[in-house]
Amino acid sequence: AAAMKQPPKITSESITVGGKTYATDTFTNVTPTILEKTTRQLHLIPSHPIAIIKDLISTSFPDFKHYDKFSPVVTTKENFDDLCFSDDHPGRAVTDTYYLNEKIMLRTHTSAHQLQAMTESDKLLVTADVYRRDEIDASHYPVFHQMEGAQLFDTKTAVEDIRKSIAADLASSGASGSINTTDTTVITPENPKQDCHDEAAMLAVADHLKHSLNMMVRRLFAHEKDLQVRWIEAQFPFTSPSWEMEILYQGKWLEVLGSGVIKQDILKNAGKPDKIGWAFGLGLERLALVLFGIPDIRLFWSQDERFLRQFEPSQIQKFKPFSKYPACIKDISFWSNENFHENNFCEIVRDVAGDIAEDVQLLDEFVHPKTKKRSVCYRINYRSMDRNVTNVEINEIQEKLREEVVKRLKVELR
Ligand code: FA5
Ligand code: MG
């Protein structure tokens, strides 16, 4: 963790992060703005909303080993291959993932540490910052935080062990009826049982997974009298069957986590072929936005005392908005080309403007009738969370953006 605090260095030949140096190549697409985020470690600041949620959730898993200091720099083997991602899985694309080089990347999920943690523990949590190239708006940010959880059981005794464990939990927690889930696990051809699994053991593991996570959200949302939760079928390369949990919040179903029965190949690779288990990965920002009433995901990264001073360790309290500084809006139009990808454009915006870029919207596009060239126009909303931005300053950023867009995307400005 201390190593992660050292400022990253980036040159055309190499990247140094967390005290280690990696050679760059044609895959390299991390930027200084992104690498800087690796030093922040919000989940390790006790009075930060991300860490508060992390601590509250972990009280629902008292005897789990909690790993929260893994480096964000992982191999493509750890992030993808070990988790049964196919070679052509879209998550591997350079448009979606930050690469230091062909084999080294910033983790896109905490599942990248599943295998290592499972070789050591049968009950584990992993909390970490994760990185994904993405669009820009109030609910998307290229860095967010996940908590992974997994629990393994002896295959032979799983059914009996789980029955006892759920009964004990229900007895000690009093009523079980205050959560509204009418869920029985149904196995469908799209969401199958693994051939190697005994059906009764698999169903018991699925029950234990849903039971454990229902208890966790019920604790977290203790103040919501009739919290609505539902489980829907999902698909992940590393679990089968798989589900997502959604909670009803202000009239909308909000996806909170992905989960499922761990692929047996992963347990074999972890040296635990005689175990069966579940895993989940949840988004801490999603829960923090809802529980603290935080309106913009960029606020988590604010260094403004008016934000940071509001929170105390282990306590959920509603965020009190402070006045927003005015926005400055600029448009940019250019002729795009076949290689153009919106995420690459957004990356340049982040790189030249940093957190001042609040929102990027495609305003207009058309194809020239004669030349067949495609023209796009993007509107960028610039606003600081911490101070007033001047028009002069934004004009400079916009000018720099225009230069970089031409240089890096090889497009023609209009
Ligand atoms: C995963 O990342 C899987 N690794 C989860 C998993 C773990 C499944 C173990 C099975 C077993 P997904 O991409 O859906 O799945 O992300 C998981 C959660 O992270 C989401 O439910 C959401 O809460 C959060 N999340 C995903 N994308 C974002 C984003 N752009 N911003 C904030 N939170 C996000
Ligand atoms: Mg998902």
Summarize the structure.
With 414 residues, the chain is an alpha+beta fold.
How does this model look, in words?
InterPro entries: aa-tRNA-synth_II, aa-tRNA-synth_II/BPL/LPL, Fdx_antiC-bd, Fdx_antiC-bd_sf, Phe-tRNA-synth_IIc_mito, Phenylalanyl-tRNA_Synthase. Its EC number is 6.1.1.20. The structure is a single chain. The chain has 414 residues and is of the alpha+beta class. It has two domains: 226 residues, Bira Bifunctional Protein, Domain 2 (BirA Bifunctional Protein, domain 2), CATH 3.30.930.10; 86 residues, Alpha-Beta Plaits, CATH 3.30.70. 28% of the residues lie in helices and 27% in strands. The strands form four sheets. The chain has a seven-stranded mixed beta sheet, sandwiched between helices. The protein has a four-stranded antiparallel beta sheet with strand order 15-16-14-17. Helix 2 packs across helix 8 and helix 10 packs across helix 11. The longest helix is centred in the middle third of the chain and has 22 residues. It is globular. The chain starts with 8 loop residues before the first strand and ends with a strand. 34% of the residues are buried. The structure holds adenosine-5'-[phenylalaninyl-phosphate] (FA5) and magnesium ion.
